[in-house]
Structures are given as C-alpha cells and as structure tokens.
C-alpha cells in the first residue's frame, strides 16, 4: 500500500479536489496522510467531515514544505510503510496514476518514480523530467525531445520534483529523510533525489502515470507575475523564491562535483540576479 503524504496550509479547495481525484483511482491500495500546518480556512473541519479516511497530523504553522513532508514520512515509516509518495495539494491525479506507479514499481522496485505533468487547464503535457549536466551547467528537458509515440514508459532523469514522487522504503533506510535544515521549502526535492542518485538509486519519470498541475499557482510564478523591487527581493531571498541565493549555494556545495563548483555558482548567480527581469 502506498502512503501518500500531503503537506497543506489553507487552500482547502485544492486539497478537496486532490483528495477527490484520489478517490477515483483505479487502484485503491493507498492511504493519505495530511500534514496540516496551522490552516485557518477550515481545512481540518473539511477533512474530518468529507474525508474521514484521511489521517491528519497537526503542525505548528512553521513547518514549510520540507519539515511537513518529513513529519508525514516519519509517521508512515512507523506504520511500516514500504512505499511513500510525496504529493502537493494543488494537483489532480489521473485515475490511473497509482495503477501505473504500481506496475512500474514491480519492474523497478528500488527506483524513485515521478509522474508526467499535464496543465490542469489545457490537459497538455508540460513537464516530463530534466537532466542536469554539471560540466556544461545545463538542464535539458526530456519532454521536448520525445515524439508523441515516445511519451510512454520510463525515462531516466537526474532529479525529480516532490509532487507525485514515489519513494521506496529502502531509500529512506539508506539516505534518511529530506534535508529540512538546509532546504526548508524549495529545492529540497531536487536535493533529495540527487542524493538518492549518488547513493545508487535510479530516477525515472513514469510517463504512464499522470498528474494535472496548476503552473501559475507556484510561489515563484506569483512573485514573477508583477515585477518590482519587492518581488525581486523575494525572488532572491524569500523561502518561496525560486531564485533563492542561499538555497542555490547550499544545493551546489552539497551536490555539484567539486571541480565544477566555481563555474556552477558563477553561472547560477548570474542567472538568478538578471534572469528575473528577462522571463
């Protein structure tokens, strides 16, 4: 059985839609653990009234994504969970998501598996994984390289996002939990999957398992939606800023091969300092 860990803070309508989509899964071998980090919009009451099967853990209001996910994972591991999936509440699961995750897990039992992401509004594929080349300091997207007929099965990647990420228990036993001290919110998922890959685990995007997402709802997209000095500061220094310089520095020092660190940092700082105004 897959234990699905979902951290939430308010936005109960997204949580409701996500949980309802899970109820429609063709494979019902799952349980949901919600980590509610101090929601004030009635999320807890909604969960207890409409989704009594969901297990609720309470946070203090200061967990952010990584500590919230870790709380749920610890709880699932204590319950002897063998498969854990991290998921954001602002996604809709395709009804075959878990069925297709189980199918490929049987073939790759120690691999970490992500899902193909579709735009929830257009239903078109928008993200199918990335491959980071440390030497060239480039990130190549997998999806644009594939024909429509090739958009199926597993495709190897170098890292994976935490929304819809299937992680076997053996991974936690070998490398531990997400690094909430260094990466309290953004980039913790990329750091964790890079760490897993260095430890010998394979990473794939499962193109047969699909998630519908809302790209414009990300914190970084909202910061970029109106370009001004306040948002520029958030982009570089806020915990939810996609260009957070501290997180990028920590990520590079922890994961980048040592000979490439100076170039990777210089390139990355340049992109973050100036790229905000170009995109």
Automatic annotation (TrEMBL):
Q: Where is the Glycosyltransferase 2-like domain?
A: 3-113
Say if the entry is tagged with keyword Iron: no
Quote the Pfam families the UniProt record gives. Answer: Glycos_transf_2
InterPro entries, A to Z: Glyco_trans_2-like, Nucleotide-diphossugar_trans
For this protein, the record's SUPFAM superfamilies field holds: Nucleotide-diphospho-sugar transferases
Keywords assigned by UniProt, alphabetized:
Glycosyltransferase, Transferase
Would the keyword Electron transport turn up in this protein's UniProt record? no
Please give the family membership noted in the entry.
Answer: Belongs to the glycosyltransferase 2 family.
Protein name in UniProt: Glycosyltransferase family 2 protein
């Amino acid at each position: 059985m897959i234990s699905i860990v979902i951290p939430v803070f308010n936005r109960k309508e997204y949580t409701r839609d996500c949980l309802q989509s899970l109820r429609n899964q063709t494979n019902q071998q799952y349980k949901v653990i919600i980590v509610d980090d101090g929601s004030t919009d009635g999320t807890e009451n909604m969960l207890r009234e409409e989704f009594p099967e969901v297990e609720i853990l309470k946070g203090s209001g200061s967990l952010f994504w990584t500590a919230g996910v870790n709380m749920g994972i610890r709880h699932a591991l204590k319950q002897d969970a063998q498969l854990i999936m991290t998921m954001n509440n602002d996604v809709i699961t395709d009804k075959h998501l878990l069925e297709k995750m189980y199918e490929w897990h049987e073939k790759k039992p120690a691999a970490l598996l992500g899902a193909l992401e579709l735009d929830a509004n257009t239903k078109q594929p928008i993200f199918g994984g990335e491959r980071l080349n440390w030497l060239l300091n480039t990130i190549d997207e997998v999806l644009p390289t594939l024909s429509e007929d090739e958009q199926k099965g597993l495709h190897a990647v170098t890292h994976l996002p935490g929304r819809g990420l299937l992680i076997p228990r053996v991974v936690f036993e070998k490398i531990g939990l997400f690094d909430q001290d260094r990466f309290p919110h953004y980039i913790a998922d990329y750091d964790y999957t890079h760490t897993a890959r260095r430890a010998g685990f394979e990473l794939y995007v499962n193109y047969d398992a699909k998630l519908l997402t809302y790209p414009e709802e990300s914190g970084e997209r909202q910061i970029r939606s109106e370009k001004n000095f306040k948002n520029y500061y958030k982009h570089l220094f806020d915990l939810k800023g996609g260009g957070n310089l501290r997180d990028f520095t920590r990520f590079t020092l922890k994961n980048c091969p040592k000979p490439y660190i100076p170039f990777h940092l210089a390139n990355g700082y340049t992109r973050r300092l100036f790229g905000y105004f170009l995109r």
